[in-house]
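Q: Given only this backbone (391 positions), what sequence would you predict?
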């Protein structure tokens, strides 16, 4: 074929080739008949949505989901880890702390992401297939268990013999196992036998690779401090950075294929899992009519500008509290270019039309974030240097 003919043929093929390469990105929304149109900027791999049901174990479900995404990122495939094994381990650690403090510290079902990593370090890990936590229908019900366990500890602290009984921990553990089941010392997984410790070695998660970061002005920036929330019963420290850098860290993580464990307040009326959306409307909620409120979840509108001071005031006056643990799995933008985070929840898949996920706006993240956990390599290098994080 002559060169001129070849050029002409290529010119004819070029439009078809270009149209095949330029494909429209899929558009998502928060619910049917909503005018929110989300285009995915970045999304990481996740395992299936779970249901914490009647238990205060969001910290375990969300952090395990975070770790499972880490395992996928590391090329280890999908591994469903036992949320209840680490819950059981934490109940033991909480009991020991509560007794040593003579009951003058928090004892309850809540926790933080570091609780999962601390227990993996000390107790190991177990796959879901080897330890489900005594849930016949797959749904935890812990209300009675929580009351019974605390009453046992309070009874032991009455010191009837003028000292603590030698049997208190054995009795407490027996009651815990009556509710959750005793974990196996050994189990089979993919044709091999493991203990919790050797299985933790197999999955290869190094707890020292992960950092927790927050943003509050009542402590110095670029230092660590004990975050004063009840669920931080272990008194672990978090790095403190300005709000804009907390957002930079989160975005850098997601953009580079890391997910984010997210602790936040979900008590506001403009947080609506049912509607698949968490926003901060510009107009105060109590000054809106019902129709205006309903419209918030179907029509994108202006939101408040969140400052460091505004955020701090909400934490100081307790309108922002450490309510819930979730996983950030991606970033989307709406038709107006506004940023939202894709959030994986642990309230099952039936509660909304997003399959158990929802979308949190940039202002909501800025306003209601308590803290995040990320892999240390997900922190931008300039911020890591300020925090003296070795990467």
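A: Predicted residues:
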């Amino acid at each position: 074929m002559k060169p001129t003919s070849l050029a002409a043929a290529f010119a004819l093929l070029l439009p078809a080739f270009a149209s095949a390469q330029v494909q429209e990105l899929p558009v998502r929304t928060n619910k049917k008949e909503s005018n929110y149109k989300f285009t995915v900027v970045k999304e990481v791999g996740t395992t299936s949505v779970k249901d914490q049901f009647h238990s205060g174990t969001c910290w375990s479900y969300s952090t395990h989901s975070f770790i499972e995404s880490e395992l996928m990122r590391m090329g280890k495939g999908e591994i469903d880890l036992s949320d209840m094994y680490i819950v059981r381990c934490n109940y033991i650690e909480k009991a020991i702390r509560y007794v040593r403090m003579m009951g003058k510290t928090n004892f309850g079902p809540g926790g933080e992401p570091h609780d999962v990593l601390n227990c993996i370090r000390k107790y190991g890990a177990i796959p879901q297939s080897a330890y489900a936590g005594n849930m016949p229908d797959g749904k935890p019900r812990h209300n009675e268990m929580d009351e019974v366990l605390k009453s046992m500890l309070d009874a032991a602290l009455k010191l009837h013999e003028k000292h603590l009984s030698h049997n208190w921990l054995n009795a407490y553990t027996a009651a815990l196992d009556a509710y959750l089941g005793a974990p196996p010392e050994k189990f089979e997984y993919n044709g091999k036998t493991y203990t919790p410790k050797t299985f933790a070695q197999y999955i290869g998660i190094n707890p020292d690779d992960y950092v927790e970061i927050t943003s509050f002005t009542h402590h110095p920036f670029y230092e660590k401090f004990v975050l004063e929330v009840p669920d931080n019963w272990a008194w672990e420290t978090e790095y403190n950075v300005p709000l804009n850098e907390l957002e930079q860290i989160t975005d850098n993580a997601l953009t580079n294929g890391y997910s984010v464990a997210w602790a936040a307040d979900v008590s506001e009326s403009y947080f609506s899992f049912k509607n698949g959306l968490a926003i901060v409307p510009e107009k105060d909620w109590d000054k809106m009519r019902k129709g205006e409120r309903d419209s918030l979840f179907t029509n994108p509108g202006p939101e408040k500008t969140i400052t460091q001071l505004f955020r701090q005031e909400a934490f100081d006056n307790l309108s922002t509290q450490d309510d819930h643990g979730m996983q950030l799995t991606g970033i989307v933008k709406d038709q107006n270019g506004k940023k939202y985070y894709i959030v994986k929840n642990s309230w099952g898949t039936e509660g909304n039309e997003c399959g158990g996920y929802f979308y949190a706006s940039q202002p909501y993240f800025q306003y209601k974030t308590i803290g995040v956990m990320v892999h240390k390599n997900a922190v931008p290098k300039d911020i890591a240097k300020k925090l003296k994080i070795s990467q």
